[in-house]
Amino acid sequence: MNNRQKAGLIAALVTALAGPGVSQAAINVDRTRIIMSSDAKAVSVGLSNESRDQPYLAQSWVEDSQGKATNVLIALPPLQRIDAGKKSRVRIMRVQNSGAAPLPADRESLFYFNVREIPPTPEDKSKNILQLATQSQLKLFLRPATLAAEGSAAPEQKMEILLSGRTLTLK
């Protein structure tokens, strides 16, 4: 094998390994991030089972920004069965009087919402089967009510269009 063939083989291998991985998770979440206002009691997140023939368990919980369990927010139900092709919801609720340190009022607080799929056990236990379970982790921002009020005005309504002669100016 000459140097040109080796270089081509290495380039093909690096390209194959560096490409994005494709995931086939059975339990999917309906969004990529969650923003919850601090004056809201709860926010609802949709889960769907994309499997055509198997039910899955969905385990959900909330962690703080350091990856530790938090007592500020709770995901209910923490464990649920979702039948094949069906949808369900998880409510993320704020715990009142949690005993935790007060959250900052001048900026958002970062949490993580986790959903782990638990596959069903195989019916034929005489065969060796490798089962993979995926876990999704979404950023959850707890936004203080003071920030929510400031950002509630739609930016497109603040925009001004000025026409002077043949010049159009956007502000």
UniProtKB/TrEMBL annotation:
PROSITE patterns, alphabetized: PILI_CHAPERONE
Entry keyword set: Chaperone, Fimbrium biogenesis, Immunoglobulin domain, Periplasm, Signal
Domain Pili assembly chaperone N-terminal, chain residue ranges per copy: 27-147
One Pfam family this sequence matches: PapD_N
Record localization: Periplasm
Record organism: Salmonella enterica (Salmonella choleraesuis)
Gene3D superfamilies reported in the protein's UniProt record: Immunoglobulins
Family that this chain belongs to: Belongs to the periplasmic pilus chaperone family.
Presence of keyword Chaperone: yes
The protein's name: Molecular chaperone
